[in-house]
Please model this.
Amino acid sequence: MQSPRRNAEGRPLGTCDPSSSGSPAHGGGSRFEFQSLLSSRVPGADPTSARLRASESPVHRRGSFPLAGAGSSQALPPQLPEEDRIDLNPSFLGIALRSLLAIDLWLSKKLGVCAGESSSWGSMRPLMKLLEISGHGIPWLLGTLYCLSRSDSWAGREVLMNLLFALLLDLLLVSLIKGLVRRRRPAHNQMDMFFTVSVDKYSFPSGHTTRAALVSRFILNHLVLAIPLRVLVVLWAFILGLSRVMLGRHNVTDVAFGFFLGYMQYSIVDYCWLSPHTAPVLFVLWNQP
Ligand SMILES: CC(C)=CCC/C(C)=C/CC/C(C)=C/COP(=O)(O)O
Model:
């Protein structure tokens, strides 16, 4: 086990002192980048030997650059431990992810035009909040249970039973991912949401969006609707997702992933479709028509 290497001031190597950053002579950022570039060209610069050279070099310990190497072992620039290079010379994937995150935050802030009463579209906030309620879990759960209690056909009961299963699966998966990812809601969000549970302080993924995508796909597949109504269902889901960003509740990526997850959740529900044949107990437990 290697303990983190530190420089003469006791600071972990790879964390740049602001007072010395940028100066090769002081161990600043450019030196790290320079060395990480060199490391791919110096013969024998494999990670293990690089680590050994770096840890044994007195130059490394002092945190200064060997401008005048005395012995042959100092002729080559010292190599930094691999972990330092990972931080300061991130992979292409790392750069791509950071850039995506930066664009996401920037775009979400720009689109958060209803985040507060004083925001540029603040007067639209009540409408956005109405949309928020239309995609909330409580009305959907209570509505489904009510319809299930009133349903007088096996076919209707089967569809509603599966809708209930879909809504519960959605709540479970979204809570699980929110709890694992723990991404904070945008700073400009006002936490004035109707009936939330503890994981709802996190924003990834958007639960309203997963529900909107799941429910709309469910409705389109199991309800016979005229074309204008089908268009309305799709529009509702899309506008609900957009309204989450406009209200400042979510970043764009939370909503984009929400659409994806909701869409996939329907595939799971469809695959596990509950029917009197596959889950007779459920249907027997429910009252006969
Ligand atoms: C049966 C049971 C535990 C119901 C809970 C229903 C409930 C509180 C759902 C939460 C809905 C909500 C506020 C989700 C957050 O949506 P985001 O779009 O803000 O992620």
In short: The pocket of LBIIBCTY is lined by residues 136-138, 141, 171, 193, 195-197, 200, 206-208, 244, 249 (CB under 6 Å). The CA atoms of residues 108 and 135 lie 20 Å apart. Residues 1-73 have pLDDT under 50 and may be disordered. The radius of gyration is 28 Å.
